[in-house]
Specification:
With 225 residues, the protein is of the alpha+beta class. Helix content is 25%, strand content 36%. It is globular, with a radius of gyration of 19 Å. The C terminus is likely disordered.
């Protein structure tokens, strides 16, 4: 018989469907007879739904500048990224809740999960991808990393497939706008990783670049480590 603490620490993976069949059944059985865990499950669902409607504010200037200053010191100066810029009024957003760590989500404003919007984008033209981190309090020594597929790159950092840096998150929303550029046709995943202490969350976004320069973004299920 599972303990409540074991069930509650796995609710995020339970809702993501990333547990084994036996683990899923064990939690089903526990929740069916435990009012406390059933209420906790409903609270987690409500928080995840709230994150889907989380408004995406303008990029946080101080947060962005600190992040990119660290990136430039690690990987060279390059061309300073044009942060906070939108192309055709569209931005892809990834939102992470650090409050509970099991309520992280990936979403696109105004779109249902599973939809694949297509944006007309010429090769070598920047497109903004927003990372939105919601912190319950100020968090120091947070490690952020971004891994790019072969068909796109971060503006100002040509040839770099992976960037990693440490930063401090302020209480509330921390918005980081990453200007990416399509450099060729193909398909791959943009993976953003957020690590705080011994907790790690990874966010996966499929990026397909057609021969005509159009980008297709497709949400994939969250994976946790």
């Amino acid at each position: 018989m599972m303990k409540c603490t074991d069930v509650q620490t796995q609710l995020d993976d339970y809702l993501d469907g990333s547990l084994s069949a036996d683990e899923q059944k064990a939690i089903d059985a526990h929740i069916a007879h435990c009012d406390v865990c059933r209420q906790e499950l409903q609270a987690v669902k409500a928080l995840r739904e709230a994150l889907h409607s989380l408004p995406v504010e303008e990029a946080s200037p101080d947060f962005e500048e600190k992040v990119f200053a660290t990136v430039r010191s690690h990987y060279g100066t390059g061309k300073k990224p044009a942060t906070g810029r939108f192309v055709a009024g569209f931005a892809t957003a990834m939102a992470a809740s650090l409050a509970l760590w099991f309520a992280s989500t990936v979403y696109m404003p105004g779109l249902e999960t599973g939809d694949s919007p297509v944006i007309s984008l010429a090769v070598n033209q920047a497109q903004t991808v927003k990372l939105v981190f919601e912190a319950p309090t100020e968090l120091a020594d947070v490690t952020l990393s971004v891994q790019l597929p072969e068909n796109i790159e971060l503006e100002g950092y040509s040839g770099r497939r992976q960037l990693a840096w440490q930063t401090t998150l302020s209480k509330g929303q921390n918005v980081l706008a990453l200007p990416v550029i399509a450099i060729g046709s193909g398909e791959g995943e943009l993976v953003a990783q957020l690590k705080y202490g011994d907790k790690t969350r990874r966010f996966h976004l499929v990026v397909k670049t057609a021969g005509n320069g159009a980008l297709i973004y497709q949400i994939k299920q969250l994976k946790s480590a």
